[in-house]
Specification:
There is one protein chain. This protein is mainly alpha-helical. It is built from eight helices and no strands. Helix 1 crosses helix 7, helix 4 runs parallel beside helix 7 and helix 5 runs antiparallel to helix 6. The protein starts with a helix and ends in a 9-residue tail after the last helix.
């Protein structure tokens, strides 16, 4: 990434905003189109997310790396710190702010596109033991996938691979795979199909951080040269 930091932050803000708009907007559309079939709603929501996420990675990846996710940015710093190939800690902080602001903005945008109030705080409580375990699993898998691709020289496959993984994780995890603190916070601001109650955010984010640690440990075990400067 040779882009200036302001350009990268703009890409992260816009990318995360559009990602949340895709997730929340398709959830609202699914509720309206299939009001009596929750399974069909999830299918519609997940399919839109698969295609939308892949497109956004292709659009913004060359500028910022298309993290759209604080735990990915944090893992990028940790795995690249020895070789100086990842983000610096101040950049991680800046990316995180841009991602969270983008996530909130994306939820507001989705609400407005469907003629809802700009901000409607979700009342959907998602905290159960199963949901939190699912977030650990979903986030660990996401982090491991991304950095396995990068460390094995297959980064060009990130768009379809990450989109496909998230689409699958919608269905094999009970939490529908938030796997992203910025998206989790953004989804608080829409009391719709994809929303999450404010009280569920802290446990979800903690589970996502645990998942990120496990994902990084898996990468270090599978790719022990990750982040080491090659001679």
């Amino acid at each position: 990434m040779n882009s200036s930091l302001p350009r990268r932050l703009l890409a992260e803000l816009m990318g995360t905003a559009l990602l949340v708009a895709v997730v929340v907007g398709s959830g609202i559309a699914a509720q309206q189109l299939s009001p009596d079939d929750t399974g069909l709603q999830l299918l519609e929501n997940s399919m839109a997310t698969v295609f939308g996420l892949a497109a956004l990675i292709l659009m913004f990846g060359p500028v910022s790396g298309a993290h759209f996710n604080p735990v990915v940015s944090l893992a990028d710093w940790f795995l690249g710190r020895r070789a100086g190939t990842g983000l610096s800690l101040p950049e991680v902080g800046a990316y995180t702010v841009a991602q969270v602001v983008g996530g909130i903005g994306g939820a507001v945008l989705a609400n407005l596109m469907f003629d809802l109030d700009a901000v409607t705080i979700s009342a959907k409580d998602r905290v159960t033991g199963g949901h939190l375990l699912a977030e650990v699993v979903a986030t660990a898998g996401l982090v491991a996938l991304i950095f396995a691709l990068v460390r094995s020289g297959r980064g060009a496959l990130a768009a379809p691979a990450v989109g496909g993984y998230i689409g699958a994780a919608y269905w094999f995890t009970s939490s529908t795979s938030f796997a992203n603190p910025a998206v989790t916070i953004g989804r608080v601001f829409s009391d719709t199909f994809a929303g999450i109650a404010p009280g569920s955010v802290a446990p979800f984010v903690l589970a996502q951080l645990v998942g990120a640690v496990l994902g990084v440990l898996l990468i270090l075990a599978l790719y022990p040269a990750a982040g080491v400067r090659r001679r």
